[in-house]
Amino acid sequence: MSTYLKAASLDGIPHGFSSSRGLDVAEIIPGAPLVRIKQVHSSAVFAVTHAGEALPDGDALVTDRAGLALGIVTADCAPVLFADPVAGVIGAAHAGWRGALGGVLENTVAAMVSLGADPAGIVAAIGPTIAQASYEVDQAFRHAFAEEDARFFASGRAGHCQFDLPAYAAHRLQSAGVGQVEDLREDTYTQPVRFFSYRRATHRAQPTNGRQISIIGLPA
């Protein structure tokens, strides 16, 4: 059996954020089919009504159907799991900087609302993600963001700065009206024994295909 992380804010909702050891859907919600999507660093979100349906490429899924599990994979980007326990609506989003900047988190909230969720009743948990101290970016990256986003960038070496992806994701969630946001504060880059990191693997000239999986489900 794998070891995985849970968010206190999602207590009572079947979910888990894997380590590099992986995670089987049966550990989260036995007997449920796992629905995934081909992720492309977009802002596209799709509602799932049944297992096996053909889905376009995108980066987030939502459902109000019991007995389904939603999964997304990451290796530095932010995995975000959502639930409105009262409405019985869940979501899972892959939020890299492009997706977060493009609105994937707000779009996930909107898709949940279309299924009956209340933004104030939504809980969102941010799983293992590259932390600001590990995320050096150049000035071209910085200029892709608005001036008002300056607080998510810290000074770095000449011509560079450090980007706080989890804090930026939390800000976008709060701006969308999400009632509670939890950040597990686990840095993928600095924990090679626990997590895959695309950036760390690139820096070390190692294979970059390792991924964590994050899963959330609605029990039947």
Question: Would you summarize the structure shown here?
Answer:
The chain is α+β, with helices and mostly antiparallel strands. It has one domain (4-131, 165-217): 4-Layer Sandwich (CNF1/YfiH-like putative cysteine hydrolases), CATH 3.60.140.10.
Structure characterization notes:
This protein has 220 residues and is α+β, with helices and mostly antiparallel strands. The chain has a single domain, classed as CNF1/YfiH-like putative cysteine hydrolases (4-Layer Sandwich). It is built from 6 helices and 14 strands. The strands form 3 sheets. A 6-stranded mixed beta sheet has the order 4-5-8-7-9-13. It has a 5-stranded mixed beta sheet with strand order 1-2-14-6-3, with no helix packed on it. The protein has a 3-stranded antiparallel beta sheet with strand order 10-12-11. A hairpin with a 4-residue loop joins β11 and β12. The radius of gyration is 17 Å and the shape is globular. 45% of the residues are buried. The mean pLDDT is 96.
